[in-house]
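Ticket #4471: structure output looks truncated?

Reporter: J.K.
Steps to reproduce: submitted the chain below (470 residues) through the standard prediction queue, then opened the result file.
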Amino acid sequence: MNELIKLTAREAVSLLKRGKVSPLELIEAAASRIAEVETAVNAMPTLCLDRAGDLAKRLMARPPNDPPPHYLYGLPIAIKDLTDVKGVRTTYGSTIFSDHVPDRSDYLVETLEANGAIVIGKTNTPEFGAGGNTFNEVFGQTLNPWNMKMTCGGSSGGAAVALATGEVWLAAGSDLAGSLRTPASYCSVVGFRPGPGRVPSGPNQLLFDTLGVQGPMARNVGDAALMLDAQVGYHPGDPISLPRPPKFYSEAVENPGKLNRIAFSADLGIAPVDQEVKKICTQAMESWDKLGVPVEEACPDITHAEEIFQTLRAYFFASRLAPLLVNHRGRLKPEIVWNIEKGLSLTVDAISRAEQMRANLYYEMLDFFRTCDVLMYPTVVSPPFDVNIRYLEELEGSTFDTYLSWLILAFPSTLTACPSISIPCGFTASGLPVGIQIMGPPRREEKVLGAATLFEKACGLATLTPIDPR
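Returned output as attached by the reporter:
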């Protein structure tokens, strides 16, 4: 393993800034690592190394005169195959778009490249990002590097594996039903879902959607904050995008501040959770004892979270993909067909009820955070499972009703605009990663990053990656 690959993103950017290493050298190191591990894990099936090299040469020939503090100086990154990169094959994990090459990049990519990032490839994702297991008919399965018989999660599974194996230093992902957080948990990396509007994206037809967001993935919390700083800011094409905050998120990592009270729940009162996962997460909370921060078992009332989420998600899928159902039904996987049809069958009353319950849930969450700093709970209900299982159908004697239901612990933050991060907190007896979520109040990403920084230092798991596939 090339020593450059072992650097944190912050260390790599520091070397780039000081001229101790060039963007071309890092591209070469990444390409070499990809050649070593990609045939084993299938994390980044589409590469654009020539495009990356051209951009690196331009950056080196014309370095910025006064780069901002969040500038990345030519750091190679990976972009999820749901997100357009100009001139690079982008399939969305679907055979319908297997030869699609966009003529414009997503705002996210434009923002990152304007801030000195260099895209070197596209990471694998489930078809249209649907499902918590990364496989599709275009590129096949992406395998978990901790045990290549297991799923890496999804839908940002390729991004998580690329990070865990050292193919890149940073990766962009997206999250609607835990698509950043589930693979982060399953691959022992960090996935941060910021609030809607924090990271601009588009152009698209659902301009005012608040369920799906873009966010950073990294091997540690500080690197995730670095990438978030390079992602955020207002974009006129995204009407819900927010101005850059007055302070950089990296400051929350450098000065995490003080926490007064942390709430913890092993299941949020809404889901069956694997007993070993419960035990690992509960034991991990003892890390706060070392820091003198009190922990109380508590959680808000989120009884109706799944009903709300399933309704609004179905509406989202029907709004985006209904034309494909008409023209390409036979080329859509059954879970997507089901989700679109569920959306098309919704009544106005059902959608209205979901929106009203969502508002009540938001106010419930605001009340809860008046008395605690953050809420912590398992990222996923189970450890990684057999990659050949499409999705979990049963756990701890309970049956999940839909292909989404086992992802239920991701729903509350999606519905309430609360930022949430998944960070490693331990391993099962068989060596499979387990992650824990930290959720904070709406628009308080810096509070979540500060808490995650303290917890990460106490747990001491941030240096375990990159790894060779096993």
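Triage note (M.O.): checked the attachment and the full token line is present. The radius of gyration is 20 Å.
Status: closed, working as intended.
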